[in-house]
């Protein structure tokens, strides 16, 4: 057995110690903490109201940042502190999707959770309007009525040159106000709308046009109850005349105008071959004026004398209109009655 002198061993030990002291030992890298996220349930109905709870297990002084893709497939309606971190309420949109939720907390890598929203193609009233378009929430109904009537009334005060070019007859005024009432009324919208004033009215929350399974084709134009195939077979369009709006997009309420609510429509069928169907919007109290009158607004439509005009009579003035065929009275056979949008229909 070979024996090494103690001096040699001592020198080797000194070298090893020198290396250790001269260059610190590297510790294994510790991976950063990751927020643990979970969602329950993992599948929702794309009806605009179904909700899930996103649980975020990570302590943080600031609430997490949650982004959703696709952007309009779901929304975050509430974020609150929980015992071990945070909780968020996620509400489904109306367009079916495989939804990815990205959760960001300062100092931690982003975490992800997945959610599936399944289609809801029910038509509870069998009126051709899918339930995903119906505004069941009373706040949404009020928001729609206020925006619809405000936008229509505003056009009366605009000079013809500043109105949207599409507003050329009674149905066009209705289509414009209806479509724009269902948009998200943010800064970009306000800039493009060219309104003289933008009111502090909340937007509809269930969905915003055109982010629904129908896209830009908002108006029903074919008879029958809603079927999934209607999404691709031309049952809906961006254009609908007054007759089609009455038959496919609204339902009868009464022939008594005292039962009308703001945003309801009046329809007439005249004997004239030129635009026999005519429509008006019941405003109720003005959102622009300060008097106590109840108003309607409508576009006369073009005639041989020119492009027509927008008028805004009071209910009393219309009831005493010089031409009896335009008086909204139960004994006027030309007056078809008060109609309400199908999206506002109450479903038992």
Tell me the major beta sheet. Answer: 6 strands, antiparallel
Number of distinct helices: 6
Number of strands: 16
The overall pLDDT, averaged over residues, is 90
Topology pattern, helix = H, strand = E: HEEEEEEEEHHHEEHEEEEEHE
User: What is the terminal separation in angstroms?
Assistant: 100 Å
Short description:
The protein is an alpha+beta fold. The chain contains 6 helices and 16 strands. It is elongated.
How does this structure look, described?
- There is one protein chain.
- The chain has helices spanning about 5-20, 140-155, 170-180, 185-195, 240-250, 315-320; strands at about 35-40, 45, 50-55, 65-70, 75-80, 85-90, 95-105, 110-120, 220, 235, 250-255, 265-270, 275-285, 295-300, 310, 335-340.
- It has about 350 residues and is α+β, with helices and mostly antiparallel strands.
- The chain has two domains: about 35-120, Immunoglobulin-like, CATH 2.60.40.10; about 130-345, no CATH class.
- The N and C termini lie far apart (about 100 Å).
């Amino acid at each position: 057995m070979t024996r090494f002198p103690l001096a040699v061993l001592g020198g080797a030990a000194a070298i090893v110690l020198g290396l250790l002291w001269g260059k610190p030992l590297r510790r294994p890298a510790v991976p950063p903490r990751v927020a643990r996220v979970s969602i329950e349930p993992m599948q929702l109905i794309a009806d605009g109201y179904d909700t899930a709870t996103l649980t975020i297990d990570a302590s943080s002084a600031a609430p997490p940042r949650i982004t959703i893709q696709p952007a309009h497939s779901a929304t975050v309606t509430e974020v609150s502190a929980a015992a071990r971190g945070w909780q968020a309420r996620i509400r489904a949109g109306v367009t079916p999707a495989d939804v990815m939720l990205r959760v960001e907390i300062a100092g931690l890598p982003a975490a992800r959770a997945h959610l599936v929203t399944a289609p809801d193609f029910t038509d509870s009233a069998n009126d051709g309007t899918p339930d995903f378009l119906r505004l069941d929430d009373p706040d949404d109904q009020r928001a729609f009525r206020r925006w619809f009537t405000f936008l229509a009334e505003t056009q009366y005060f605009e000079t013809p040159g500043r109105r949207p070019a599409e507003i050329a007859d009674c149905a066009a005024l209705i289509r414009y106000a209806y479509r724009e009432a269902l948009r998200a009324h943010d800064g970009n919208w306000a800039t493009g709308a060219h309104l003289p004033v933008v009111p502090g009215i909340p937007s509809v929350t269930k969905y915003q046009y055109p982010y629904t399974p129908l896209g830009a084709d908002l108006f029903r134009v074919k008879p029958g109850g809603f079927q999934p195939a209607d999404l691709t077979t031309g049952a809906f369009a961006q254009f609908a005349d007054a007759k089609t709006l009455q038959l496919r997009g609204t339902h009868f309420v009464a022939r008594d105008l005292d039962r009308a609510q703001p945003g309801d429509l009046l329809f007439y069928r005249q004997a004239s071959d030129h635009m026999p169907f005519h429509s008006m919007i019941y405003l109720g109290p003005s959102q622009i004026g300060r008097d106590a009158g109840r108003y309607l607004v409508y576009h006369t439509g073009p005639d041989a004398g020119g492009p027509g005009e927008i008028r805004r009579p009071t209910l009393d003035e219309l009831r005493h209109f010089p031409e009896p065929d335009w008086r909204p009275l139960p004994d006027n056979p030309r007056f078809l009655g008060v109609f309400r949008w199908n999206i506002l229909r109450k479903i038992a």
